[in-house]
Request: fold
Amino acid sequence: MQGVFSALPRVCASSVTPSLTITPTLPHRRFSSPAATASASGSAAPPSAYEDQSERLHTLKEAVILPDRPGFVIPTYQILSNDGKLLNKKEYPSELDQATVMKLFEGMIQMNELDKIMYDIQRQGMISFYMTAFGEEATHFGSAQALTNDDVIYAQYREAGVIYHRGFTLDQIIHQCFSTTKDLGKGRQMPVHYGSKELNFHTISSPLGTQIPQATGAAYSLKLTGKKNIAMCYFGDGAASEGDFHPALNFASTLSAPVVFFCRNNKWAISTPSSEQYRGDGIAGRAVAYGMHVIRCDGNDLFAVYNATKEAKRIAVEESRPVLIEAMTYRVGHHSTSDDFTRYRKMKEVNDWTIGNNPITRLSNYVIAQKYTTEKEIEQLRKESRNRVLASMKEAERAKKPHQSHLFSDVYDEMPLNLREQKAELEAHLAKHGAAYKLDEYDEEV
Reply:
C-alpha cells in the first residue's frame, strides 16, 4: 500500500485499541514475500503475477503458510481515543474546523434521535419496517464528509446518515418510510430503501450484496469516461459472505476501477457473529489477496474514518486503483425490526459497546474538551433533533399515499399488454369493492 498511513503496532481484526499510533511519513506497509528470485525461465513475470516472483523454498515445513501468523494481521488505524483525546495530533485533518466538526456531530445526533423514534413507531404499527444504525454513526458521517456529490454511492440499508449528509432531508427520509406522495419512490420500496438521482445515491436494494458488482461496473464506466470521481460501495461483513462480493473485487482489481469498497464490520450478520462467519484476517485480508489497497480503521473514530476515506478516494482517482476500507465497529441495535438480538447475545456485550466505545460519546468528549459546546447544549441539541423528527412524522401521518396506478408505472416507456390488463383488472376490482378499502387515504390519479 502507498500513501500517508503506516500503523506501527499490529492489532487483531476484532479489537480496536486506543494505544495505536500512526507515523505519517512512512510509506504504506506492504504485505509481500522477501526479495523475489528470478523465475526458472528467466523471463519477467507480469506486474500483477506476484506468485511468479515469490521466493523459492526447498523445505515443505517452511512452505506451509499458517493462517494465524501474527505478522499477517492488518493493523487498525485510530487517532481519537474513547475519552475524546487525539492519539496523534499530526494526523488530525486540519480542514475539519470547528463548524465542520459540529455539523458532523449534529448530524450524528439527528440520525440517532431519528432511529429511536422510527423504531418505536414501527413497534406501534405506524410504519411496516425499520433498521437502526445505533453505534455506527461515525462510519456514515466520517466517510460521507470525504466524498463529493459527484461520487456515485451504492449503499446497503444501514447508511441513512450518508444520504442525509448529502442533502436528503429529514422530511424525505420520513416520508419514504411512511410511503407518502412525497416519497421519491412513490411508495414502491420498503422503508429505509432510500435513493436520489439528484444526489447520485442509487436506490437501495433488499437482496444482500447486489450493489457490490454494480459499483465495480459504475467505477469502470467513470474510468472510461475520464471522470475524476469514484464509486463508493457500502456493505456489511455479512454481505462479504455473499457470492457477489468476490467477483466484484476481482473485476475491480484486474480492471483497475476507481471504486472504494467500504465494509462496516459490525461483528454481526443478523444473528451470526463474525467468529462463526469467517476465518482469517477479517474482510481486509481478502482485499490483499485480490491485489488491492486496503485500510482497516476504527469505525467508531470519526476522524480515522474520514482520513481513511479521503486517502482511499485519492488512491482510486489518482492511481485508478480500487481500495477496500474495513471499518471496525459494532451493531448496537437489532438487525431490523424483524429481529430480537436478546435471543443470541447478552446485554452486557451490548452495554459495553454502548457505554465504553460509542462513536457519539467519543466525539462528544472531544467537542466538549475543545470547548466547541457543552453537555447542556448537547442535551438541548438532542431535544431539538427529536422535535424535528416528531414534526416531520406528524406531517407524514397526514399525507396521502401515492395512487395505486403507480404500481404499474415507471418500468416501461410504454406499458406492455400484460400490465395494461392487470391495471384494468385492479380498476374493475376497486370499482366493485372500493368500499372495503381506505381509498380516501390515497392520492388522485395523475
